[in-house]
């Protein structure tokens, strides 16, 4: 079967962190084997230290929760579709964060006393982890007054300030890294209203001296460490219409950002 990577335009600006690996997977004769080769090369492991591999969906036992199976076996059930391919791509790119999310999900399942994942309500922590896993973006800002101002404006949905008044920060001091695999899937056929649940990270000055790969590793370590804190995600995620990021779409003038159907005012404002 052709690799789902062939469906993706790896030249899009939001895919820059995944470009080289995506291109490599695009030409693979057996894409699942190529994923597993990359996982071995990068020594990807789950939260129990087990090597991660990507297996056919049929290997998931009946009445066993997806998250529990990954935690106990290191095997990630991967269907023959773009959604699951992109999930594997994120495992390869941010393994510590994916492992921490899996640990959180497994702990919540154990707390609920179920291995099936369906017999009891999910709860706020598990819901937040699922939302992050599927639809998160990371906004990195400098740990200074400008970064604090940009972060505050984003939380208040002050879109003109974020994208126009402080727009020059993007591509320099401010970076957007996409994480959610469902978010990436939607962006294969991009439309203006695509909105991420965004976690803002303040980064030290030393971050900006790192290469792209070392930046990715820094993000992976620091986000995983934050997620290890109890209820770390609840209340922290804020909306970000991703095609509003400067140079991620065409026609980004004031009228573009004045579209209240996409760039919505904060409730109560």
Could you describe the 3D structure shown?
Helix content is 42%, strand content 11%. It is an alpha/beta fold. It folds into 2 domains: 15-121, no CATH class; 131-257, no CATH class. A 4-stranded mixed β-sheet has the order 4-3-5-6. It has a two-stranded parallel sheet with strand order 1-2. It is globular. This is DUF3025 domain-containing protein. InterPro entries: DUF3025 (IPR021390). It comes from Collimonas rhizosphaerae.
Chart the SSEs and their pairings.
Blueprint: H1 19-26, H2 31-41, E1 53-55, H3 66-73, E2 75-77, H4 82-93, H5 95-112, H6 124-135, E3 136-142, H7 145-155, H8 159-165, E4 175-178, H9 181-186, E5 195-203, H10 212-227, E6 238-241, H11 254-257
Parallel strand pairs: 1-2, 3-5
Antiparallel strand pairs: 3-4, 5-6
Protein name: DUF3025 domain-containing protein
Pfam families: DUF3025
Organism: Collimonas rhizosphaerae
């Amino acid at each position: 079967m052709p690799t789902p990577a062939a469906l993706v335009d790896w030249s899009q600006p939001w895919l820059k962190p995944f470009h080289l690996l995506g291109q490599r997977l695009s030409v693979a004769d057996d894409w699942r084997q190529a994923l597993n080769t990359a996982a071995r090369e990068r020594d990807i492991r789950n939260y129990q230290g087990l090597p991660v591999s990507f297996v056919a969906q049929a290997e998931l036992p009946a009445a066993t929760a997806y998250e529990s199976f990954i935690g106990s076996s290191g095997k990630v059930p991967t269907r023959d579709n773009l959604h699951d391919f992109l999930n594997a791509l994120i495992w390869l790119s941010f393994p510590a964060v994916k492992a921490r999310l899996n640990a959180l999900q497994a702990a919540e399942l154990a707390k609920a006393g179920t291995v099936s994942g369906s017999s009891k309500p999910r709860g706020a922590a598990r819901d937040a982890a699922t939302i992050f896993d599927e639809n998160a973006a990371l906004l990195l800002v400098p740990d200074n007054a400008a970064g604090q101002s940009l972060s505050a404006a984003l939380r208040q949905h002050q879109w003109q300030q974020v994208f126009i008044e402080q727009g020059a920060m993007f591509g320099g001091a401010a970076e957007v890294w996409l994480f959610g695999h469902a978010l990436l899937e939607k962006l294969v056929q991009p439309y203006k209203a695509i909105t991420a649940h965004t976690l803002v990270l303040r980064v030290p000055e030393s971050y900006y001296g790192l290469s792209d790969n070392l930046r990715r590793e820094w993000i992976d370590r620091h986000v995983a460490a934050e997620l290890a804190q109890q209820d770390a995600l609840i209340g922290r995620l804020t909306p970000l219409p991703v095609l509003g990021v400067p140079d991620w779409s065409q026609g980004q003038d004031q009228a573009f950002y004045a579209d209240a159907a996409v760039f919505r005012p904060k409730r109560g404002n």
